[in-house]
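BUG: 3D viewer hangs when loading the predicted structure for this chain

Environment: internal workstation, default settings.
Expected: structure renders.
Actual: progress bar stalls at 90%.

Input used:
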Amino acid sequence: MPQSEGPFRRLLTAAHHAMGVASGSVWLLATLLRSTRAGRERAQKNAEQIVAACRAFERKHGRLPTTLEELVPEFLPALPKALYDGPHFGFVYDVTPEPPRHVLGWTDRIPFGRPYYVFEEDRWGYLD
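Structure tokens produced before the viewer hung:
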């Protein structure tokens, strides 16, 4: 007849299981954060490429582009990707006519966290 497991043994087994889950969670979180940081750095570099292409467009045409698509293929071979892609998370280029304002932005952290660049002020900012 098998001997039943005592309370101390059950406690040790549960603690061992909890430690395994915790260490696995820490490893997963570290992996996700590392890849997200690399993605953020890549998105920032891509945004800087877009800003440089817009400035080159401005030097050639005497104005900033009205859409990012105007940059392709003369100034960029293709529009680079932001950290997240899609209609609400990719690079957004907002143009208002009066007063003239051109802003490049993207989502850095969902649901909040949006870096942006204002061309008329030649400055970076962070919304949220």
